[in-house]
Design brief:
Length: 238
């Protein structure tokens, strides 16, 4: 016996009506009923963040919500990014940042990271490194070691700050503002504040994962399945 219920979601600005079973997870409704497969499923248990979307502007893990619970909500997925005013019909500054700063390797976590980054910059256009790391703390990446993801979001913050306010951007960066000096902000690798919790997972002040030959050891236990701090990775992150 099916017990389907009608729900309405406004997804990336378009209202869609669906018939879903009460047990249907929002992520499955998005991927299978709406055919928007940009939102990924990594764990289905709320651990990885690959399924992160924005619900009424707030980042949520769509594998932890029934579709019926989202009835009447505005949902944004990665597919909606190009339609935002700040994208100007092309890549969103966040997407551009991930490209320019090598913020992805396999890309599995990326849609969730982009949504988490979008939620952060909507609320805080000028985040420091610790705030970025906090914002993405519910999103796991098995490839990058996170440093380039942080740089990608910093890149997007700078790009958005440089856009005219009428174009969806924010005020220009004041010389000497925290955005202007993000690269030297406390918690930035290699900064002057010494080792902090916002720095490397191993507590060192300097991100020591990458070498100059294209491979790196991330230094994070179990990252990418590596059993030890000597796990070798060979991403495009030199
Ligand atoms: S698939 Fe939702 S948190 Fe992993
Ligand atoms: S790029 Fe993040 S999991 Fe592969």
């Amino acid at each position: 016996m099916t017990d389907e219920r009608e729900i309405t979601l406004t997804i990336n600005g378009t209202e869609r009506t669906l018939e879903v079973e009460p047990r249907r997870l929002l992520v499955h409704a998005i991927r299978e009923d709406l055919d928007m497969t940009g939102t990924h499923i990594g764990c289905d248990t709320g651990n990885c963040g690959a399924c992160t979307v924005l619900r009424d502007g707030e980042p949520i893990k769509s594998c932890l919500m029934f579709a019926t619970q989202a009835d009447g909500s505005e949902i944004m997925t990665v597919e909606g990014m190009e339609d935002l005013p700040e994208s100007d019909g092309e890549l969103h500054p966040l997407q551009e940042g991930f490209h320019e700063e090598h913020g992805l390797q396999c890309g599995y976590c990326t849609p969730g990271m982009l949504m988490a980054g979008k939620a952060l910059l909507d609320e805080n256009p000028d985040p420091d490194e610790a705030e970025i790391r906090e914002a993405i703390s519910g999103n796991l990446c098995r490839c990058t070691g996170y440093q380039n993801i942080v740089k990608s979001i910093e890149y997007a913050a700078d790009e958005l700050a440089a856009q005219p306010a009428t174009d969806g951007g924010t005020a220009a960066v004041e010389p000497g503002s925290s955005a202007d000096v993000a690269a030297n902000a406390p918690g930035t690798t290699g900064d002057a504040d010494g080792p902090t919790a916002a720095d490397d997972a191993d507590g060192s002040d300097q991100f020591d994962g990458y070498d100059t030959e294209g491979g790196f050891s991330c230094g994070v236990e179990n990252c990418c399945g590596g059993p030890s701090t000597d796990a070798e990775h060979h991403g495009d992150n030199a």
